[in-house]
Amino acid sequence: MIATEQFPLAKAISSKLADELDAIRFGEPCELLDHTTEITTELIKWWFQDDYIETRQINFHEGQRQAILATIYSHEVLGAGSLKELYEHLAPTSLLEGNLLSRLTDDQQHLKYAAKMATGTGKTWVLNALLVWQYLNKLAAPDDPRFTKNFLLVAPGLIVYDRLLDSFMGKEIDGKRSFETSDISRYQELFIPPGHRESVFGFVQSAIVTKGDIGRKVTGGGQIAITNWHLLAGVDKDNPDFADAVEDEIDVETPGMDIDQRRAVESFFPITPGTTSGNSLDVLDRRAAAGLPMQSLIDLPDLMVFNDEAHHIHEIKSGGTITEVEWQKSLNLIAENKGRQFIQVDFFGDPVQPDRFREEDPEGVLPSYHCGFRSQ
Asked: Average model confidence (pLDDT) for the chain?
């Protein structure tokens, strides 16, 4: 059995939250709720206090609860802007082991939160809860940089993409989606306290943007953009604009396959006029349209990204080297001008694990939930 010490940060967070959760369950004062906003306090009590749990037939299970609380605690309470800051808060002695401190010091990229939960254990419910948490806080305090009303949900393929559409828009019946069948509506008694349901429903119904409409559909007061990773990599063949923007011979069959960086950039942004047939006005118009999704995401002042089932597409190890897949490079570009107002949450499932976890857990014996925090 793997030693939990190999994940000192996750262990420290779990230990910290264990006592807090008991107080929350019984409606007693606790340090965590002393440092959260009124909205967050209301949500945590609604989700996890026994008085409310006992009135519902459906509630979050332990793994979902840990993933939600760990993310809120790290982001809102600790307010860490890097992985190094999280270690300094929670596991400072671990920084002296190996070359961890130097690796974290060299890393200047945005913070990412990672939740390892077995496939089928309800990652989408955690996603829904965190989205509600962010949206209601931003609605209550528009100037608070910790929160956002802009979301990007990234799926590993069309099956999960359709599942996310079902979760937020409802199932498709006779060519139309019924919001009443969406997760956010069906399980409203779990996700949303009564006083906030009308505003959340209004937001979700008006803010959804499918992959073909990113950069083209105008939404007021935020957006929930849903896509598969292929769009961000410039190789989504279901989108005519992007299909025109990349050369026909580029055929990505697996997420880890190498993609030429120049071609990926050209798929995001329009080319400049020239004398070749490839630079005709018709081609320029199509490629200008192809650049809209990426540019619209870059232009957002803040954004929260959810990568569903990120174990399929997050990092590929080739020849002993861990490399980024192309769509993660796109997310890094989107994040550049946002600073701490860019939040990334990656959901990893079993039995496949991200490489850095697999090296430490080759037998796959980690628990069905494992909240970790990692930077690029």
From this structure: 76
